[in-house]
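Q: what sequence does this backbone want?
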């Protein structure tokens, strides 16, 4: 494939999406099999008591997010300074090895340790995503590409819900994950060029003090807070959905699946819409406030067909609340606060924020409020903070002032 061709760009986008999706699939395989019919196998496989399973499943399903909070900045900085193909490729080899080991380790502690390592070794392919997309695609195409990339996590979660319970045993499911991981690894080595990106010539040399500029960048920190508040709000809603509606005597499992499908579709559609609009900030305010308000409304109405309509609409709208911040990452250099060569470090900082906020915000809200209405309202509050703070970030869309000053005219 020609490195600058659209075929190469979209092939790499698909591989990057799979790299993110496999993490969510890997994390959720335990939770989707914790149903009454299959929970017995988990108890035996983990070697735990039935009473403890309810507390242990959430931990193993989210433990892979801890490496993101700790190592993302370091990994992002390394990706800016080292060859992309071999560093990511080596990490993928270690990922597949850990996935294969999980098939044979029948203990909860062993599964937690290996799942944590999988989350660690998948960081390079996840963090390099925004940087590669920024170099592979024309500015006018970045919002759509980022919309697809942002939907990858939802794809992994939705596929886990659909296919996870179908495996005959948990080891069979872990084997399926290993096979997918191996396919992603092979595709990376076969398709990816040595520098990974689509720019001509070698990557710019990293000047002294470049990383400190990223750490001091106000637009970077604002983007981190926006993304963190958005992902925290999403997890507040997702983690409470089943239990909240359960108190109303309503099974929300199908509702949750419909909402996640809407989030995937909305992530892709929002990328297309934002690309046409050419601006991010005002649409982002609408996405956060209107989408969050619809979730609260969907909770307040009497459970029934209208609930599905409202939650699907909310999912379609709020889907870009996290993704817009990924879209901003390869464009932040236009503000002049740091150079384009530090995009990997910037992506790592955003991943760090997501890892911290996705644990801290749901934990704080869960401890502070027992009432589910207040939990949904707090999710709206955090989305509102993200939307309003986003207005203070310089407009980075293709029709914004900075794009006109920094980008060549588009054909």
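A:
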């Amino acid at each position: 494939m020609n490195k600058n061709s659209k075929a190469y760009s979209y092939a790499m986008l698909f591989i990057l999406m799979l790299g993110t999706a496999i993490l969510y699939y890997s994390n959720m395989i335990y939770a989707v099999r914790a149903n009454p019919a299959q929970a017995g196998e988990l108890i035996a496989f983990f070697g735990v008591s039935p009473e403890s399973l309810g507390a242990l499943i959430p931990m193993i399903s989210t433990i892979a997010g801890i490496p993101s909070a700790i190592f993302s900045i370091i990994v992002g900085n390394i990706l800016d300074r080292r060859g992309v193909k071999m560093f990511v490729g080596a990490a993928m080899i270690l990922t597949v090895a850990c996935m294969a080991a999980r098939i044979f380790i029948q203990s909860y502690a062993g599964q937690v340790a290996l799942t944590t390592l999988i989350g660690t070794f998948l960081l390079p392919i996840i963090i390099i995503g925004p940087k590669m997309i920024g170099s592979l695609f024309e500015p006018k195409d970045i919002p759509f590409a980022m919309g697809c990339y942002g939907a990858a996590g939802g794809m992994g979660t939705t596929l886990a819900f659909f296919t996870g319970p179908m495996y005959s045993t948990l080891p069979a499911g872990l084997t399926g994950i290993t096979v997918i991981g191996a396919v992603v690894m092979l595709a990376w080595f076969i398709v990816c060029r040595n520098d990974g990106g689509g720019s001509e010539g070698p990557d710019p040399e990293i000047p002294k003090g470049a990383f400190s500029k990223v750490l001091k960048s106000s637009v970077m920190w604002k983007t981190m807070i926006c993304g963190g508040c958005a992902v925290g709000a999403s997890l507040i809603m997702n983690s409470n959905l089943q239990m909240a509606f359960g108190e109303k005597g309503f099974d929300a499992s199908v509702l949750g699946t419909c909402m996640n499908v809407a989030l995937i579709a909305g992530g892709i559609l929002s990328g297309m819409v934002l690309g046409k609009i050419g601006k991010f900030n005002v649409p982002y305010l609408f996405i956060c406030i209107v989408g969050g308000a619809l979730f609260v409304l969907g909770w307040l109405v009497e459970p029934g067909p209208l609930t599905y309509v409202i939650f699907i609409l909310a999912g379609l709208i709020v889907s870009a609340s996290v993704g817009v911040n990924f879209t901003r990452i390869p464009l932040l250099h236009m503000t002049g606060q740091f150079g384009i060569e530090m995009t990997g470090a910037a992506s790592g900082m955003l991943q760090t924020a997501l890892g911290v906020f996705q644990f801290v915000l749901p934990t704080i809200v869960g401890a502070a409020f027992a009432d589910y209405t207040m939990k949904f309202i707090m999710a709206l509050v955090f989305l509102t903070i993200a939307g309003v703070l986003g207005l203070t970030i310089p407009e980075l869309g293709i029709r914004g002032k900075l794009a006109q000053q920094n980008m060549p005219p588009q054909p």
